[in-house]
Sequence to fold (795 residues):
Amino acid sequence: MSRCAWPLLRRLPARAGLALRHGRPAAAAPSAPSSLSSSSSGDGGSRAPDTSLFVPVPLKPGPGGAAGEDVGAELTRPLDKGEVLKNLNKFYKRKEIQRLGAENGLDARLFHQAFISFRKYIMESSSVSADLHIILNDICCDAGHVDDLFPFFLRHAKQIFPMLDCMDDLRKISDLRLPPNWYPDARAIQRKIIFHAGPTNSGKTYHAIQRFLSAKSGIYCGPLKLLAHEIFQKTNDANVPCDLVTGEERVFASEDARQAPHIACTIEMCSTNTPYEVAVIDEIQMIRDPARGWAWTRALLGLCAEEIHVCGEAAAVDLVTELMYTTGEEVEVRNYKRLTPLTVLDYALESLDNLRPGDCIVCFSKNDIYSVSRQIEARGLECAVIYGSLPPGTKLEQAKKFNDPDDPCKILVATDAIGMGLNLCIRRIIFNSIVKPTVNEKGEKEIDSIPTSQALQIAGRAGRFGSSFTQGEVTTMHREDLVQLKEILSEAVPPVKAAGLHPTPEQIEMFAYHLPDATLSNLIDIFVSLSQVDGMYFVCNIDDFKFLADMIQHIPLNLRSRYVFCTAPLNRKEPFVCTTLLKFARQFSRNEPLTFDWLCRHTKWPLAAPKNIKELVHLEAVHDVFDLYLWLSYRFMDMFPDAALVRDIQKKLDDIIQVGVCNITKLIRASQSAAAPGTAEVVSEDFPTAKRDARVASDRRGAKSPEALSIAVEAPALRRARNPRASRSGTRQEDLKSYGRGSLANRLLREGLLTQEMLRQLESEWQDQHRNGRYGFGSKRDDQHSSKETGKKRK
Fold:
């Protein structure tokens, strides 16, 4: 007969599950706050959290008492683990227990995980706490009920899921419904908001900058380093001292490094604590950007300026007005019209032979850039090349080359990077394609027609006011794209509906205080899951942040430093840059400064001019590594001490890349000669269609006849196969096949890559394959024939 020790149990805490013994729900259990229920936070029905993000904290089985004693066994008897297991499983199946768990925040998933952990803890522990031991013993000897285990189960659940105990606090921290309240300095003054609304080339930014120049102090916030640098130069040229602040550097107007009253900066770098007379926020429509929109929201709500001049598309007027209504500030809207006419032509280019000076061909992949530029130079024309991953200095040099009336370069081949940040004298914009790889709000990759907003932004670069071209023109490379382009440009730009937000370091630190065992990636996930925003805001995409957080999770860093590393501006598709960040973080964690010599060894500096496209792409990645070093040096000056030296070699690298871009067609030829004949897969792309298009186009490069040229320029149009509006793509691919054989064979013969004997063998194989109806039947005979031919050659 066991000793039940009831006097000891009277001193134990009240047990929530006792009332269930007679079938009554324990609704009034004082030790079980319902913090995870949907209406628990008192906010009028907040959404339930995504519990799949809750990672259990592992608990080791109990080793026993201080001296290996089992107090519970001494008070009662050793536990029969077989009987304990049966009763635990009976406890798990009880509907009343599951309902009580749900009332305490344990949904089906958490309840199951908590029970598995609870059962494992009991079964693998050499001893458990005295009170739990006594309850288990009573249940095994029919002196207790399995429901009496619930308080211990709930205590264990809160140990492995610490968020159960602090859900109300976590909800409050992640409540993003009142962003204006985050900026008390801005709310303490009455600001005047002036919205300069208009299309590209309407003078809206010019008027805002004029007010910026006339103010006693001011700040310009732009989306790109190029724009910030342009305003920095113009302001100082106007004898108004202005500093430049970007993520990688700070340039003072004065030699003694005193702060100037005017600042031109990238928008992420603007200060919300410094007072200004005038602030200019450029490209406000980017407040909807899935990745960077939070920076425009922060600037709009937080800048301490008497006047805020907002420039951008009219589609953002309503949202900005609504946001300012929540701050009690009125918006004055000034509308602008385009200064020069823009005409959509009624005919497509169709052939590169129809190019004229001042033309710009817009592509949406690097492979298309390489293909088109090679074909242009094969016709004896020089072209400038601009795409997103080029360094800013190289972009400026290419733009200068194209704009120079005395330079023989009169054609520009570019990506949508020309949409903002560069002043270009373009007469005609030619869309090589009207579909583009994009990333949606969920971080998923898609290929779709370019949106109206982007099409207008790019097309508007033609006929810039003050340039030699007083009228802009826009068309497409392919005739069938022209109708769709006209439809896109004629559509109204959809209104901007929401502004982006992003968790701040302070919010994540408060989360970490409550969840000290969670990883940074998991903290961000839980934050977004619990976050509450109203209809005017959305939480920005955090995939890049999480990618870096997971990559450096194993490195011991404090939370603030880890957060900074995860916000580093890098392209996660560049392995060399990501690997470098990992090495930076590892060296940083060891408290070892990252010196100039260390960086030179890692990047193998000095570097030679590129010999092919692969080397050019690597040089661009090294430039990004230098950018990353400078960005980190701005935040950890002691650990990245050689910013000045790195900036010097970055300028030299910029010059090397410029040489490579100027000789880009030579690099393409070198890349092709190193690869298999007929391929031009010189750079990796996220979308396989771009690779296929590059191969097809490469088979026709250098063709002089109009017939061969028409096939070459049609290659990028294959991408329309994924576009539901382009139903003729199948026919186009058949045309490519039928035309390609003759033109490719002739070109290979001319270049010496194909002999008449090889051509006859290919024709024989082709006939055999068609005679057999499929590949494979004649493979053995073909192999024998090939071996005989090889033997003849050797003789």
In short: Residues 1-45, 677-742, 774-795 have pLDDT under 50 and may be disordered.
